[in-house]
Amino acid sequence: MAQRNRGRVSVPALAALSGSHNQAPGFAGGIDLMGSRLDKQTHLWVVSELYYPETTSTGYFLTGIAEGLASDYRVSVLCGQPSYIARGLRAPAHEMRHGVEIWRCRATTLDKNRLLARIVNQITISASVFLQALLRLERGDTVLVVTNPPLLPYLLLALCRLRGAKCALIIHDVYPEVLTRVGMLNRYSLATRVMSFASRKLYSGVDWIVALGRDMKDLVKGKLNGVSKNISIITNWGDTEKIRPEAREKNGLLGKLDLLDRFAVQYCGNIGRTHGIVDLLMVANELREEPDWHFLLIGWGAKKKWAAEQKAALSLTNLTILDPLPEDELKDGLNACDVAIIAFARGMAGISVPSRMYNVMASGKPLIAVCDSESELAIVVREEDIGWVVAPGDIVALIAALREARQNPVALRKMGERARCAAEKKYTLECVLEKYREMIDGMSQEQDGR
């Protein structure tokens, strides 16, 4: 195998050198200091339903990975048209963007919040991507495919085996566990058993697995039943360039909401079925008679409507619910609190690793993690000493953690400083890209050794 050039420049330097007027913040270009392409022997395919201009977390992170790796490999993307936050926007069916060749496949883009419409979307995009891959995938190519929509990785694995390509699975959703633990499937049903069998076959069939956290790796290893498999832990990252700590008294959102004299507690991100929104509402209700507290709920998802209904029913004047903030207001939004909460329902360890954790850390905010004690979120909070870990449903402990946070401003500030330091050292895009390079090189070396 040809050796790749290890004399890389930083991601920000690459972005500056690319000179593209539509460069997305935090995404790398693919040109080295001499303006020439680095070794492109490996053709890397990134396969995902969601990709730029879709800005939901999967689209954002897959775009960052593809564009960041374009300085090392020939990178192509197979994806769909925007169907989540950017739904309704039509992007070019084929384009080159920041060194990445993008093929957007035709499929339905129905309202994802309707279950039947979402299933139709998933079937049509899976079939469309498969047909495009059938036309373009060649022997020796390397494929990175995500687990959502659920059918897509099975189709790509079968095609990789047919074409003699290598296949790495990036696990964003663990099936059927994510469905059983939110009550969408009975854990003893035939559908659950079929999905469990299928996921074991998928995990054992791919060449490499990417888990987003240590808890997810443990869960995957358990599902493999002793089958030896390469599993890398490659987390998501925080945008430490754009998102930085800022002085509380200068925060525009707190000023706009007239909360500069309140102790602000913020939940920012997906308000979905897997998240502990009930705990947050219960705490707001318990503290409603104490005027110095205020809770901010920022984001979108399946439980947002329910949260708004509960706010109205309980007359929670100490709770503000906001839509997702535009990208240019994200730093201000993340800094609009004294402490951040990331809350999950019970039993989500290994199933969901919150990407927003890294941006909260980048903003220098201490964290209250409402989650299973063995989850990646809890592990990070403990090992970096940046907050508190509370069991889901333990409202007394959650209120106690909040009171302790408020009563110890010096300790709170030091936690925030440690959070920022950890984000800069461990959870940047360049740290993540280096782990992907190691994985892709390892896959190539295995292929050469056969």
Write the layout of secondary structure elements.
Elements lengths: L10 H8 L24 E5 L9 H13 L4 E7 L13 E4 L2 E6 L9 H22 L5 E5 L5 H12 L2 E5 L6 H4 L9 H16 L2 E4 L2 H10 L7 E3 L18 H5 L6 E8 L6 H10 L6 E8 L3 H11 L4 E4 L7 H5 L4 E5 L12 H7 L4 E4 L5 H9 L2 E4 L4 H13 L1 H18 L2 H20 L2
Parallel strand pairs: 1-2, 1-5, 2-4, 5-6, 6-7, 7-8, 9-10, 9-12, 10-11, 12-13, 13-14
Antiparallel strand pairs: 3-4
Helix pairs in contact: 2-16, 3-4, 9-10, 12-15
Instruction: Give the total of beta strands.
Output: 14
Second-tier CATH architecture of the largest domain:
3-Layer(aba) Sandwich
Tally of individual domains: 2
Q: First CA to last CA: what distance? A: 12 Å
SS class = alpha/beta
Sheet having the most strands: 8 strands, mixed
Question: In order across it, which strands form the biggest sheet?
Answer: 3-4-2-1-5-6-7-8
What overall geometry do the principal axes of the alpha carbons give?
Answer: globular
- Please bin the fraction of helical residues: 40-55%
Q: In the CATH hierarchy, what is the superfamily of the largest domain?
A: Glycogen Phosphorylase B
Stretches where pLDDT is under 50 for at least 5 consecutive residues are: 1-38
Radius of gyration: 22 Å
User: What is the CATH first-level class name of the largest domain?
Assistant: Alpha Beta
Average the pLDDT over all residues and give the rounded result: 89
Order of helices and strands, N to C? HEHEEEHEHEHHEHEHEHEHEHEHEHEHHH
Annotated CATH topology of the largest domain: Rossmann fold
Question: Count of helical segments?
Answer: 16
Sheet-strand content, in percent, reads 15-25%
